[in-house]
Write a structure and sequence with these properties.
- This protein is an alpha+beta fold.
- About 50% of the residues lie in helices and about 20% in strands.
- Strands 1, 2, 3, 4, 5, 6 and 7 form a seven-stranded antiparallel beta sheet that branches.
- The longest helix is centred in the middle third of the chain and has 57 residues.
């Protein structure tokens, strides 16, 4: 065995020596490193340009509106206008410039002179504001009740070089949010704006906008830390990991003290370099293939067994378990080929075992499901037959039990039809019917089963008829499925609630239980065929129920919380024809 291993190693070493790949690989490494460095510098420069232009746009946007408010203050000074006239000017200004939600004029003592707001002003004169223009200061950013960034501008009013009051305006920065949203670098590069104290003002990533409402402080952001370390170093760039590897560049809005950061995942930022790198690798690989072409003739006996094993492995992976390999090299590859053939034989045997077990499990599940779905109608028929044998039974009760037997036999027939026409349901015949009446019939029939399971069944029916165009028997099947599922899912002592109501032009039926609930990851599949959350059953009840409801132009939705219960809501279009008939009668 040692000689065979040495023989294979020698052949492999000779093949590599003939290729002489070391110089070519060294050249490829140097070329790739140079490409990465050049691409990085180019991407950083481009992103810095975007950040700088974005900072200038935001500065211009804020300063322009500050100048507008200052111009308004000039129009209000020394005009001799009455208060209602000043109020009207402020209201017209707010209507014209939507960014201002409220503008209020204060005198030097802080009393309100005029305001655009009906009622008491919400804003006050800000203290320690950031100067943004001549005689204009801007308060710190805060999030209002609409979860939007808002600030307050204050213009200092003077008369004969003496302070005479303040003109304040509540400034909505929603438009700045839109500006930040439009700043994109490729597909996943976004911009964000940070206040001097580190408060996040705006974020272009839709998944991170909630951070603004939470007033997250990003003072510890790598770029903010770098900015503090070199205050005059803007624009600057860093690579860091924030959930994923990212390239970030920052530009300062000096007039506001804000910082604009543009972040982009490094794998996207250097995508072009990656493509070029792959192309370079391909080129090197082609050169390597040319160099080793001569050595191929000597290594053919070494390669052929590997190729045979590869083809066999791929065939087995595609399901061709009858594939076998024939390797007669007399070395380890021959042993590997024998092991492969043994593995394939074993896989065939295991596949047959799995198929047999799956058939047995399916037959058991079908049998259990049939017993589950047929037990209730058969039990009702048996109980009714035993009661019919009593001699002291009056005629009315006998007729009631005969109708119960007839209804349950029809239910059994309908169940068989559902199984036979599962893929293509039979068309439903529609008649004007009262939903509440059909619900009451099934609830009364199943109330005894609920009580036997220690459950309370409560009802709340709408006043008057709820008319739809439907099939009473088909809907009874739906109600029975929902109530049966609720009974099985609810522990003794629980409660099942059935309600009917009208909502606009829709008729609603709601079945609610206090059972174990359905996990969220299974809710989307509970209406599929052969999907069930119970230990028994075929998993057809909800699938058939959904088809019946949809054939009646209705909808069925489910809400559930594990440990608290489940609620199914059926909605059907109200029948205007039925209402007219009811009114006429």
């Amino acid at each position: 065995m040692t000689l065979k291993i040495r023989h294979i190693a020698v052949r492999f070493a000779l093949l590599l020596a003939l290729a002489a790949v070391v110089p070519l690989i060294a050249y490829g490494v140097v070329s790739i490193l140079s490409l990465q460095r050049g691409t990085r510098e180019s991407v950083i420069a481009g992103n810095q340009n975007v950040a700088t232009r974005a900072a200038e746009e935001i500065r211009r946007y804020v300063v322009t509106h500050a100048d507008l408010l200052r111009a308004l203050s000039a129009d209000l000074q020394d005009t001799g206008l009455a208060q209602h006239q000043q109020d009207q000017i402020l209201e017209n200004f707010v209507l014209q410039f939507r960014e201002f939600r409220e503008i209020t004029l204060f005198d030097e003592s802080g009393a309100v002179v005029a305001t655009s707001r009906i009622g008491k002003p919400r804003i006050t004169i800000p203290k320690n504001g950031q100067p943004v223009a001549d005689r204009v200061t801007m308060s710190a950013i805060h999030v209002d009740e609409d979860l939007l960034p808002t600030s307050v501008f204050a213009v200092r009013l003077t008369r004969l070089n003496q302070a005479s009051g303040w003109l304040t305006g509540e400034f909505n920065l929603e438009e700045m949010w839109r500006m930040v949203d439009h700043i994109r670098i490729s597909d996943h590069g976004y911009a964000l704006v940070i206040a001097p104290g580190g408060e996040l003002i705006a974020h272009g990533d839709p998944d991170k906008k909630a951070l603004v409402a939470k007033t997250v402080n990003l003072a510890a952001h790598p770029l903010m830390a770098a900015a503090r370390a070199q205050a005059d170093g803007f624009p600057l760039s860093r690579e860091y990991v924030d959930g994923q590897a990212a390239l970030g560049v920052a530009a300062r809005i000096a007039q506001l003290g804000w910082t604009v950061i543009v972040e982009q995942p490094t794998n996207e930022a250097y995508a072009t370099a990656t493509v070029l790198q792959r192309q370079l690798v391909v080129a090197i690989s082609v050169a390597l293939l040319l160099m080793i072409s001569v050595g191929y003739l000597f290594g053919r006996s070494f390669i052929n067994p590997i190729l045979a094993l590869k083809r066999g492995t791929q065939a087995v992976a595609e399901g061709q378990l009858d594939t076998r390999v024939d390797i007669r090299t007399g070395d380890e590859f021959a042993d590997l080929g024998d092991a492969f053939n043994t593995m394939a034989d074993r896989l065939v045997q295991l596949q047959e075992d799995v198929k047999r077990q799956e058939r047995q499990a399916m037959f058991g599940r079908v049998a259990a499901g049939l017993v589950h779905d047929l037990s209730h109608p058969i039990q009702n028929i048996g109980n009714s037959l035993r009661l019919l044998e009593r001699e002291d039974l009056d005629a009315e009760s006998r007729e009631l039990f005969r109708r119960t037997i007839g209804r349950e036999i029809a239910t059994l027939k309908r169940f068989m039809d559902d199984l036979r026409h599962l893929v293509k349901p039979n068309p439903i015949e529609r008649f004007v019917m009262d939903v509440t009446g059909s619900v009451v019939e099934i609830v009364d029939a199943m109330r005894g089963e609920a009580e036997r399971n220690g459950l309370t069944m409560e009802t709340a029916y709408a006043d008057g008829p709820l008319l739809i165009s439907g099939d009473r028997f088909a809907l009874g099947r739906v109600y029975r499925n929902l109530l049966s599922n609720a009974i099985q899912a609810t522990e003794p002592g629980g409660c099942i609630t059935v309600t009917t109501a009208r909502s606009g032009d829709q008729i609603e039926v709601r079945v609610t239980d206090t059972g174990s609930g359905i996990p969220a990851d299974r809710l989307s599949a509970i209406f599929d065929d052969f999907v069930t959350t119970k230990r028994r059953g075929l998993g057809l009840g909800l699938a058939i129920s959904k088809r019946i409801v949809e054939q009646l132009d209705g909808t069925i939705v489910v809400e559930s919380e594990v440990g608290r219960g489940t609620a199914f809501t059926l909605r059907f279009p109200a029948s205007d024809e039925g209402e007219r008939q009811a009114a006429a009668s």
